[in-house]
């Protein structure tokens, strides 16, 4: 890998780097246009192309009225060319790779060391101060071959068939079938979002629980996820709603100062109500879950609304009383709907 100087150079080596940079950003380049960009003759361009070929770059001559050149992928990896911003971006991406769970951590460390060795001193110092840690728990490891296979199926718009090892579920008699649309990582876990034609709806699956079957199924016509934003769509599924908002939201006054509440408010809004008390607006996937989550603050709670939240506190109080008395529980109520059980666990 080489880092291209930002300042232009009239030396042959500098011109070669500039030529290679141009060939990398466009498929076909007419010879006259390259010559004009570099400020040299077409004959000089031909000589420089020959020099790049000697270095291992596969550059094909393009036939046509104007003629030209095309940089093709070769059978071996020649030196790569990045400008300074690209080199720093590459180093950041490699250092972040450990938090993806994609099974490439060791290779990413080796690649980062290779990149670092060829960086100019000033860029190496910028990269060395980077400290990036994975948030949201330990990443769940995924076979990179599965990620590549799913990515290829998404690009080819081919249905995938797979077995799914969900916890507390019997094994499927037949493989599942899904039209894959998006592959993304959230909190160290990889998820596949796709359309299930048999039960027409969007589905989300954890990739680490998938065992792919071959061959893939038939081609399909891609769709757009509800709302058009796949990250917001996945976040909504975790909240058990159609949109990226909690289906159950309430407002309370907590008997704690806002400095004690805010660090644990999650995506809620905490603000001072009166000295020593906090107004908290927050949500959850059910009223019982919302009430139980608020009880963790271990303080007096004044429910401002809605009535469903008060009723949930009353129900929890009854359960707590029965548990303390060792009495039996009443008949179980139906659980609230969770839009996607695979993603919720």
TrEMBL record:
Annotated region (Disordered), positions in chain: 322-345
The protein's matches in InterPro entries, at most eight in alphabetical order, are given as: CBASS_pafABC_assoc_protein, DeoR_HTH, HTH_11, PafC-like, Tscrpt_reg_HTH_DeoR_CS, WH-like_DNA-bd_sf, WH_DNA-bd_sf, WYL_dom
The UniProt record lists the HTH deoR-type domain at: 12-71
- Would I find Lipid metabolism among this entry's keywords? no
Keyword Transmembrane on entry? no
Q: Which UniProt keywords apply?
A: DNA-binding, Transcription, Transcription regulation
Q: Name one GO molecular function term.
A: DNA binding
> Per the UniProt record, which residue ranges are transmembrane?
none
The protein's name is HTH domain-containing protein
- What is the organism field in this record? Amycolatopsis tolypomycina
């Amino acid at each position: 890998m080489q880092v291209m100087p930002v300042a232009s150079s009239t030396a042959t080596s500098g011109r070669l780097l500039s030529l290679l940079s141009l060939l990398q950003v466009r498929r076909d380049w007419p010879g006259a246009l390259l010559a004009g960009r570099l400020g040299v003759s077409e004959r000089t361009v031909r000589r420089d192309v020959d020099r790049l070929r000697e270095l291992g770059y596969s550059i094909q001559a393009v036939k046509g009225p104007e003629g030209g050149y095309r940089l093709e992928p070769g059978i071996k990896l020649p030196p790569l060319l990045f400008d300074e911003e690209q080199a720093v971006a590459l180093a950041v991406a490699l250092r972040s790779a450990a938090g993806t769970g994609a099974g490439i951590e060791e290779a990413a460390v080796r690649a980062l060391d290779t990149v670092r060795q060829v960086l100019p001193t000033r860029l190496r110092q910028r990269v060395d101060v980077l400290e990036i840690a994975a948030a949201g728990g330990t990443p769940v490891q995924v076979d990179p071959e599965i990620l590549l296979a799913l990515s290829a199926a998404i690009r080819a718009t081919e249905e995938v068939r797979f077995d799914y090892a969900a916890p507390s579920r019997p094994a499927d008699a037949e493989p599942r079938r899904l039209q894959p649309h998006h592959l993304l990582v959230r909190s160290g876990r990889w998820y596949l979002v796709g359309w299930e034609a048999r039960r027409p709806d969007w589905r989300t699956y954890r990739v680490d629980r998938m065992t792919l079957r071959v061959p893939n199924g038939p081609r399909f016509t891609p769709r757009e996820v509800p709302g058009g934003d796949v990250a917001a769509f996945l976040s909504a599924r975790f909240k058990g709603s159609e949109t990226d908002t909690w289906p159950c939201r309430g407002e309370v006054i907590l008997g704690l100062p806002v400095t004690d509440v805010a660090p644990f408010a999650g995506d809620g809004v905490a603000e001072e109500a009166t000295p020593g008390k906090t107004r908290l607006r927050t949500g959850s996937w059910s009223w019982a879950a919302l009430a139980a989550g608020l009880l963790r603050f271990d303080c007096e709670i004044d429910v401002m609304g809605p009535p469903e939240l008060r009723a949930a506190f009353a129900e929890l109080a009854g359960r707590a009383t029965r548990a303390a008395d060792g009495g039996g529980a009443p008949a179980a109520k139906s659980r609230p709907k969770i839009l996607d059980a695979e993603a919720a666990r």
